[in-house]
Design a protein that fits this description.
homodimer, about 50% helix, about 10% strand
């Protein structure tokens, strides 16, 4: 009966419902290189990944912060499964709201990596 | 001979060259509602527009700031023409670096406006 998405049992983390997701928030979430990298890895994997899967060159608390920004923007869904916090891309929600945007963003990120890697 | 774009005569403003434009910077520039609105208006018009064309609900100095963020990210080109500072979307540069991205972003912004306007 609320506007938010159904909460999983246990230690549920707050997520915006699909209709609460804002383009500006999504773009802000993806404007950081590490967050963009997280999203690319989630998209490439296609499945949920635990936070510990990501080998980011920052502290654990900074990593937690980046995942939280992505979750609060509606880009990823974070769910506790046992002792692991699992992260999944909200591809369906984003594709429904903004058709083609996520694919364009991922393509742009891949092109940039290819370009700068060659430089 | 420099990596930056050719400067127009007179009071030239610094711009990143095409190859200096970064996806993260573009996304950050577009993550603000007013800056996104500026870009949408420039895209809809298709031509250069003066800063004074935009009727933004903020002070002149804040408006200047937003245009500067867009310029420094490589999203717009700002050129003095006489006494007017003219702004143009760097569509060719963005389309070359990130094919389809600008179109997807503009479409996403239009969809969001239509959706929230109906709410």
């Amino acid at each position: 009966m609320t506007a938010t998405a159904p909460a999983p049992a246990g230690r549920a983390l707050p997520h915006p419902a699909r209709e609460q997701i804002r383009l500006e928030g999504v773009l802000h979430a993806l404007s950081d290189p590490l967050r963009l990298r997280i999203v690319r890895e989630l998209a490439a994997d296609g499945d949920e990944l635990s936070c510990s899967f990501f080998d980011l060159p920052v502290t654990k608390s900074t990593t937690t912060h980046h995942f939280r920004v992505l979750r609060e923007a509606g880009v990823i869904r974070q769910v506790y499964r046992g002792t692991a916090k699992m992260n999944g891309l909200r591809r369906d929600d984003l594709d429904e709201l903004f058709p083609g945007l996520l694919a364009s963003l991922l393509d742009a990120a891949a092109r940039q990596e290819a370009r700068l890697g060659e430089g």
